[in-house]
Write a sequence for this structure.
């Protein structure tokens, strides 16, 4: 009789344990507004994506979005290896990357969330205010090495660039250098923060950064023109939106989706970033929204 009673207790205990585990799994089940999401973001997009995560979590307090700062290429590697579930690039995935990622069972999805620009920055004391695309090519391939050759001071030019895994590096090399190599005098930096600090500290420096990285330090963004005759444009939101500034580029969200019906924290956060609130964050951060209409207003005194 005692053995039968103990058996009943054991079965009852197992039922309770099973119910407890089931309830626990239900509580931890991910939704569009609940769960954990690792994001790998290109350096230039990081301030926007991080701010979006902060806003999202303030509304949905059961969501935790962990944004890691990296390069575009490394962000895709993280996505492919499962280290993150959302990659944010400062360029479109290239053909080889697409072929690799589209070979998986899950559907590889890309969405342009905003538009940025490659801003050309100089030390604040440099008298040069504008350069042509051709002059940029000469500077960054090492053909021109002194500012005097461009109408500036008799001072050595020090080009500062990001490393080869960066979207900025790849876009500039492809579109401006026309796939030529950067000059031996080009100094690679591991982060955009370090790049802007070096330009701030070096009077002869010239650097390539994003719109979100031009707001600090004694640096200035300069006007860029296609030809010597111009016109020349600053990298402003208006000029990027109208595609007048020559060095504009997209910020692209990349992720995997099992089916059109898949709902998880990835889909929730992507929807947030591409909807009105997320696009307003893009405007506030100084870049151009991609999924909502934009109206430009000319201010006059």
């Amino acid at each position: 009789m005692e053995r039968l009673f103990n058996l009943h207790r054991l079965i009852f205990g197992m039922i309770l344990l099973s119910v407890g585990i089931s309830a626990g799994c239900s509580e931890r089940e991910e939704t569009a507004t609940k769960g954990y999401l690792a994001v790998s973001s290109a350096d230039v997009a990081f301030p926007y994506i991080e701010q979006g995560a902060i806003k999202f979590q303030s509304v949905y307090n059961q969501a935790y979005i962990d944004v890691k700062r990296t390069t575009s290429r490394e962000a895709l590697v993280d996505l492919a290896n499962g280290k993150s579930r959302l990659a944010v690039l400062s360029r479109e995935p290239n053909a080889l990357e697409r072929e690799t990622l589209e070979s998986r069972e899950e559907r590889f999805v890309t969405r342009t969330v905003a538009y940025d620009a490659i801003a050309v920055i100089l030390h604040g004391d440099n008298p040069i205010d504008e350069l042509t695309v051709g002059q940029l090519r000469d500077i960054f391939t090492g053909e021109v090495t002194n500012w005097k050759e461009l109408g500036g001071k008799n001072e050595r030019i020090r080009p500062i660039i990001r490393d080869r895994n960066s979207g900025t590096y790849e876009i500039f090399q492809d579109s401006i250098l026309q796939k030529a190599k950067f000059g031996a005098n080009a100094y690679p930096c591991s982060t955009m923060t370090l790049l802007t600090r070096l330009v701030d500290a070096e009077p002869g420096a010239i650097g390539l950064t994003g719109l979100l990285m031009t707001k600090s330090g004694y640096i200035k963004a300069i006007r860029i023109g296609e030809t010597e005759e111009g016109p020349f444009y600053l990298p402003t939101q208006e000029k990027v939106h109208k595609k007048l500034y020559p060095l504009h580029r997209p910020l692209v969200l990349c992720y995997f989706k099992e089916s059109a019906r898949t709902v998880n924290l990835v889909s929730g956060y992507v929807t947030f970033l591409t909807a009105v609130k997320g696009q307003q964050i893009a405007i506030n951060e100084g870049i151009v929204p991609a999924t909502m209409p934009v109206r430009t207003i000319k201010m006059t005194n």
